[in-house]
Amino acid sequence: MKFTAQQIASFINGEVIGNKDAEVYTFAKIEEGTAGALSFLANPKYTEYIYTTNSSVVLVNKDFEANGDIKATLIKVDNAYESLAKLMTMYEASKPKKQGISSLASISPTAKVGENCYIAPFAVIGDGCEIGDGCYIHDGVSVGDGAKVGNNCILYAHVTIYHDCRIGNNCILHSGCVVGADGFGFAPTANGYDKIPQTGIVVIEDNVEIGANTCIDRATMGSTVIHSGVKLDNLIQIAHNDEIGSHTVMASQAGIAGSAKIGEWCMIGGQAGVSGHCKMGDRTIVGAQCGIIGSRKGGETLLGSPAMDAKEFIRASAYLKKLPDLDKKVKELMKEIEALKKQ
Q: Which of 149, 210, 216, 287 has the highest Cβ tally under 10 A?
């Protein structure tokens, strides 16, 4: 499908600068633009490419001012990145969607499947499951007995949802993610470790996206809860009885130990870790590889391990670079002190 610059501008309330009839049919990064592509400029680091890009149309913020000739047609908008997201959503929605249930899918006679669903070959829907309307369940997905999946969800290949877990509406689960595996619960004994039965479930609310190979463990008792709007990257571990607040985001390889409570609108960087039973207040920002070993009040920006205020960490890091010189000076001073003592 092709769209003109004017059609695009009308959809995102933008202003066309240049050829209103310029047509696009695909997306491209501004530095890799080709004819017929739509690109965007939001990060000033990429400004140089707007003068050389071959993209036909480029989204820019309203405050952008050109300092040279630009071949592309520009569309000025309040926020170029948000506008791009809207356009890509519209583009995805316009693609034809698969429907129907494959004869190679295994669906229990006691399961309930909603209307307008697609269920691919080799998907398995267990006893007593409920699948909402408009869901896309791809090949190799396993939905355990008694589990429930809401409306308009996408479960990509080889997603596993264990028994009795709950998935809300409009959720996306990427390939290989596991919801509801046993929590890491063992009781030490003289002969080793006895397994503690994990009798709880996982509850995932609406509009949650879970990345590939991310694992969310079921609760020992009660529920592990992922609240609405949470976005989890690939390769994340959420342990038993955790609670992740609404609209919190986590980057790859973050790990949250058991019974932790993460507030709303938090941002957790890659490879960051949170100790068990910690409570983190709303709107906390946790930098990459940060280690949280105690509860935090919220509204903080944290770096380092153990975590500290970001400004304190930066000051401490500046001193860290000077440690070899300081060590040398201390040794010299110690020698002078010893010499003075002998005198």
A: 216
